[in-house]
Structure prediction request, 298 residues.
Amino acid sequence: MSLRMGIDLGGTKTEAVVLDARGQPAFRRRVDTPAREYASILKTIAELVTAAQRATGEDFSIGLGIPGAISPQTGLLRNSNTACLNGRPFKVDLETLLERPVRIENDANCFALSEALGGAARGCGVVFGVIVGTGTGGGIVVDGKLLRGAHAIGGEWGHNPLPWRRAEDGEPSCYCGKSACIETFLSGPGMARNYASRFGGQLSSRQIVAGAAAGERRCTQMLDTYHDQMARALAHLINILDPDAIVLGGGMSNIDSIYDQLPRRLPDYVFSDFVDTPILRAEHGDASGVFGAALLWD
Prediction:
């Protein structure tokens, strides 16, 4: 089977691609995710598979990137910020609906695999891939292979507490039931909530970044805090994993100042006399997850 289909199930959009034997897209489509309705999510995926079959006229393998992970113990999906997926036998239900096997991985794992094998971190031995967008996920690739871990939570840095916390950080609650998780600071909604808590008013993360670029004082302060929060979170990871490269993806990775500020701030927190860990922008942009999902059968 030379064709490989990848599907990236996001909180707002679901993207599908079919790659040919040369790794080039033979089919590509993006649709809205019905994120509150479990049955509608299954239907959306099935419709994308049907559309791809009609477009290509051939059979293909299917890999799927999801928010969260399938529990190795129960087979149920857990840890997803698309809450309707949690506690569901998602893999069984999807394979029953499609009448074919599907390989499923955490979306950040798919992102990391894509960038390690054919993206910004190609050639690096140990790669940490980060998605900072609606949520905050991470994936680890070592010598071209995913490091899933015994509990299928390898790389889940977003639900560890932000290290070296300060008064201005606050103690935001997280959907996972804990507070001050890295995700509650670095995700787009997290930045917006923290701005409202600190300064009042309702601004999106996009508006905060634009306000900082225009010199608005409160937005500038919020973005400065964000830079330091990300440096602390990544330094904690570097102190444990010491990767050869870190690749950033997701909507928040498009903040240009991150790539200037992080190298300056990491030495304040990394347990080393020097820090030259490359902080890289994803080469495949928001398509990395779907390409990585297609690679799950390789």
